[in-house]
Amino acid sequence: MIKLSAGTAHVLGMRKLSTDALPTTAYMMSGERCTHDCGFCPQARNASSRTDLLSRVTWSQCRITDMVNRIRAAYEKGQLKRACLQVVDGCKAIEQIKEIVKEIRNCSDIPICVSAKVKRREEILALAEAGVDRIGLALDAASERVFRLTKTGNWQETLDLISEAADLLPGRISTHLIVGLGETEEEMVNMIRYMRDLGVIVGLFAFTPVPGTRMVGMRPPRLDCYRRMQVANYLMDIINTGDCRFNSGRLIDFGLSAELLTEYLKDGKAFETSGCPGCNRPYYNEKPGGIIYNFPRPLSKSEIEEAIDIVLKTLDGRS
Ligand code: SF4
To answer: Which of 200, 240, 256, 261 is the most exposed place for a label (fewest CB within 10 A)?
Structure first.
């Protein structure tokens, strides 16, 4: 058995869901209750959250054999662009992944991304050999200080593993960074830059307080802060900007004129979900009808104007 996000189950015709944004990636989860104890995660060892939650998303069980044929059909119809497998517990993770990836590979060429707690280079290579297209190694926290406050595990070992994986499989590693765990914007921008320099794709998340987690009492990030981080992440991707200025840790200048910045942002792509190609994660961080941190679809003209306006208004004169 495997778990599918509610949106994925809907796209695969296994569950009815009323939604205005369908996932373009099939989100799958294997295992229950992680060996780690991150303060923000409903799957953490000591969380008392429902076990059918990851971020804000609910997950339902299905048989792997039922799922794979439906994934093939949805990929062939262009409804899905990628499959993302999240393995939450460490025990036998690599064996589980190999089995699931083999089942999918037997009937489809859909690109597969796997996020799991791998620790050694042999495990990274084993995943690549199993037919995985990209490997997600989540760092989550933008600095060692925030890592120690919010996560378990070892900061330096996690960074070293990401760097080693990026060397072993160039252009095939992704990471997640969560905005709003207590980092400064300068720490976040520096970490995004570090990952980009390694050739690692960054998927940005907004911290989302989930009932039953240690950090449920904390607030999500301010929207203006999140928009600046999206812009920093996007600009590093397209022009590798390195000229940001900060005031007390807050980003106040991208080193570009307002006109040039607007030109780069006018298609709205900076504000869409970031991460592996084809991943849009609808409502991972958002309540339907609430603030949209990551747009899972192209933005309307007015949404683009509003997002750019938020960014420009909070910068220091020049940009
Ligand atoms: S960016 Fe998307 S597809 Fe890639 S690992 Fe993260 S959730 Fe999965």
So the answer is: 240
**216 Cα–ligand 1 center, Å:** 23
pTM over cut 0.85: yes
Residue type, 164: E
Is residue 282 within 8 Å of 217, Cβ to Cβ? no
pLDDT of 257 > 70? The answer is: yes
Q: Pick the atom of ligand 1 nearest to 136's CA.
A: 5
For 2-313, CATH number?
A: 3.20.20.70
In sequence order, which residues have a C-beta less than 8 Å from that of residue 78 and are 6 or more positions away?
A: none
> Where do the domains of the chain lie?
2-313
Q: Which residue has the tokens 């720490």?
A: 187
Mean pLDDT of 261-280: 97
Q: Inform me whether the pLDDT recorded for 62 exceeds 70.
A: yes
- Measured in angstroms, how far is the CA atom of residue 99 from the centroid of ligand 1? 20
pLDDT band at 215 (very low <50, low <70, confident <90, very high): very high
What is the distance between the alpha carbons of residues 161 and 149, in angstroms, rounded to a whole number?
20
Quick one: which atom of ligand 1 is closest to the CA of 274? 1
Measured in Å, residue 272 CA sits from the centre of ligand 1 at 14
Instruction: Return the residue whose CA atom lies nearest to atom 5 of ligand 1.
Output: 136
Q: Whose CA is nearest to atom 2 of ligand 1?
A: 279
